[in-house]
Amino acid sequence: MVRLIAFLVGLFFSGMLLLGLGDTIVSAIKEPAQPTAEHEFHKLALPEKFTFDGPFGKYDKGQLQRGLKVYSEVCSACHSLKLVAFRDFAALGYSEDEVKAIAKGWKTEVPSINPETGEPATRPAIPADKIPSPFANETAARAANNNALPPDLSLITKAREGGPAYVYSLLLGYREQVGYKNEEGKELLKEFPDAKTPEGLNFNPWFATLNLAMAEPIAADDQVTYDDGTKATKAQMAKDVSAFLAWSGEPKMENRKSAGWAALGFLLIFTVLTWMSYKSIWAGKKH
Amino acid sequence: MSFPWAQEYTPRGTVTKWVDERLPLPRLVYNAVGAGYPVPRNLNYFWNFGVLAGVALVIQIVTGIVLAMHYYASVDGAFNSVEHIMRDVNSGWFIRYAHMNGASFFFIVVYIHIFRGLFYGSYKAPREMIWLLGVVIFLLMMATGFMGYVLPWGQMSFWGAQVITGFFSAIPLVGEPLRQWLLGGFAPDQAALNRFFSLHYLLPFVIAGVIILHVWALHIPGSSNPTGVSVKGEQDTVPFHPYYTAKDGFGLGIFLIFFVTVTFFAPNMLGHPDNYIPANPLSTPAHIVPEWYYLPFYAILKAFTVDFGIPFTGITIIPAKLMGVLAMFGSILLLFFLPWLDTSPVRSGHYRPLFRKFFWYGLIPSIVVLTYCGAQQPLTQWVILSQIAGAYYFAHFLIILPIISRVERPLPLPNSITEAVTGKPLETAAA
User: What does the pLDDT read at residue B431?
Assistant: First the structure.
């Protein structure tokens, strides 16, 4: 009885799937799926290498400091960094006094209340504060950005396929749309005339939908002046800020990797010892 | 239970004697995983995975209890509390990554454990009850894993919860009210998050309870073995301790090396980037996928594309969506009937030439294909592949297995485990 019912149930499910298969094939032949502009022209992140790649990789503190400078002078005009506190900048190689100075000098102040009247007010940041956001709330952010919401950047490298290399590619990925061709030599607007970038958006083949609200943020060399004398080319700035955002997403990465090596070393000894005891206990016992 | 030659627990010290007379807990442990449990001598490394699954559960419970000390189940605070754990709690990043990847490794070892049972016929008499309890554990794990994935309240958490609870709305008449009752609202929100957290904390202990039953049921007939031949004499077995404690210790070392490598060097490899975006009920991700361990079932769900009805009348009896949901649950629930679908008296796939072909060239590829397709965009080629693989999956268990059990001519079985291992018959073989 069980096998009879099972047979019928199996026949039903398998049969319906095979019917569906026929249906899928017929409709695929009748109306083949049309390629989309996103599918044909979206580009994967460039294979850009960073110092923190791989199991031994470490952050380059100088690069993180330069990246912070790019963030604070360029990105922070629109993008918040809510999960990072000023005190965390000690990990970038700043002393306690330097951290205090960065917090105090941050161009957005921390929302507060006036202690006398209770009215809303602002005060200069201290190291314990999280980085103040450029806009008071989502409505304000949208109002200032043509109804687009600049995402918080704290976790951006972990929240996008490709990570820091994606951020780097996107920052350098703005192109003139008219005449744009992909590697196969196909011209976007000839293949997909409807894919023309709408008013108020910007063309960038590294963005999932090919058009994004953010205008090219790093538009020219020497947009910031680095304190360490590094030449601020566009690529340099894009790379430094991508590294900085990788750090802001994963500040404990170096602890993680070094703890990983210690754990692996321990486990290697553990495994060799258990293997030896396994061999000696089973010695002479065929199995 | 157990075999007549099992060693007996004999406490020597005054304290152990005193305890044994009042609460024979050490005796219980001795008989369960000590020298008092005779185990076939020929178990291969696939028999390590039961113990590994137990270790994985302990890792999940220990790390989970610590996470719960710092986690805040609130739609406004959950995401940030997880990031607080990652950034500010001492070694919080380790606890969280271990828990996150521990779930994946729990499923990896449990899947290997299940496939071992499938290949070696461990579900057959007299071990049906062990198998049934195992399927219960698997279902509980799936529920627990799903609710755990919702807790960080990222985009995939929220939309995964939306999709999974949406299954219930496919049920006719009561579906939508049922879904709302389960969620405590019209969409996943504070009420849902709170109850998921509560259940996510509860269910692992239920799993631990069912594991006790699973192991209890195992100790009635004793462990199966790669030949599938029952134990016939003392020479066929070795005491669990020290023989298998040593072998399991070595297996544990290997398992932890894999686990540690992923946890410390590629902790986000098995996750989805979208779950690092806070949940936003107003913005649907481009592509909603569950965690990898649900992918074969998710592919089955999506593979049903035609309604079941009376031809040429336009009357639909079962819409495609409901059928997908039924098939998805059915694909797991059918495992409950496996002991009665596969009627071959031979347990081990080694001695079943036909079964072995269908297992390696049918079942395993179909599940691999379903897993792969489950992660893909709903493009024609992936739908076609999952329809073929899904059709095979159901046919394998419900149609093919009962038939091959009847028509197959199994290879000759060894007379005993000892004979299979040493080449000498049981009576005269040296230990």
Answer: 46
At A285, is the pLDDT very low, low, confident or very high (cuts 50, 70, 90)?
A: confident
Q: Could you give the ipTM of this predicted complex?
A: 0.94
**B223/A contact by beta carbon, under 8 A:** no
B221's tokens: 């007939």
CB contact under 8 A, B257 and A275: no
Tens of pLDDT, residue by residue over B36-66, are 999 999 999 999 999 999 999 999 999 999 9
DSSP E strand stretches across chain A: 110-113, 120-123, 202-203, 211-212
Nearest Cα neighbor of B65 from B99, B94, B109, B110 is: B99
B397 within 8 A of B330, measured Cβ to Cβ? no
32-91 in chain A: CB under 8 A from chain B: 33, 55, 83, 88
User: What are A65-108's pLDDT values in tens digits?
Assistant: 999 999 999 999 999 999 999 999 999 999 999 999 999 999 99
Residues 6+ apart with CB under 8 A from B260: A260, A263, A264, A267
| Contacts for A101 with CB less than 8 Å, ≥ 6 apart | none
- Catalytic residues of B, which ones? 219, 223, 247-248, 291
Count of CB atoms situated within 10 Å of the CB of B365: 12
Three-state secondary structure call for residue A120: strand
If you search the block for the tokens 């076939």, which residue do you land on?
A: B40
Residue whose entry in the numeric block shows the structure tokens 């460039």: A46
Shortest Cα distance from A48 to chain B (angstroms)? 18
Between A208, A252, A264, which is nearest B93 by CB? Answer: A252
Smallest Cα distance from A276 to chain B, Å: 9
Question: Which tens digits make up the pLDDT trace of A122-160?
Answer: 999 999 999 999 999 999 999 999 999 999 999 999 999
Give the closest of B263, B340, B384 to A21, CB-based. Answer: B384
Question: What pTM was computed for the model?
Answer: 0.95
B173 and chain A: CB distance < 8 Å anywhere? no
Read off the pLDDT of residues A13-62 as tens digits, 9 standing for 90 and up. 999 999 999 999 999 999 888 888 888 899 999 999 999 999 999 999 99
Q: For A88, which residue in chain B has the nearest alpha carbon? A: B87
Which residues in chain B are contacts of A161 at CB distance < 8 A? Answer: 273
The count of other CB atoms within 10 Å of the CB of residue B236 is 25
In chain B, the percentage of residues whose pLDDT exceeds 70 is 99
pLDDT band for position A284 (cuts 50, 70, 90): confident
Q: Which residues pair with B278 in a beta bridge?
A: B154
- Residues of chain B positioned with their CB less than 8 A from the CB of A271: 250, 253-254, 257
- B30, exposed or middle or buried, with CB in 10 Å at 0-12, 13-18, 19+? buried
Name the β-bridge partners of B239: B38
The closest alpha carbon to B378, from A27, A88, A179, A206, belongs to A27
User: Are the Cβ atoms of A278 and B249 closer than 8 angstroms?
Assistant: yes
Say if residues B84 and B192 touch (Cβ distance below 8 Å): no
Interface contacts A/B by beta carbons within 8 Å: 168
Q: Which residues of A176-196 are buried (b: 16+ CB within 10 A; e: fewer)?
A: ebeebeeeeeeebbeebeebe
Residue B428's pLDDT is 55
Cis amide bond preceding A198, omega within 30:
no
Number of other residues whose CB lies within 10 A of the CB of residue B22: 8
CA A246 – CA B409 distance, rounded (Å): 61
Cβ-based contacts of A16 with chain B (< 8 Å) = 304, 306, 308, 323
Residues in chain A with CB shorter than 8 Å from the CB of B397 are: 6, 10
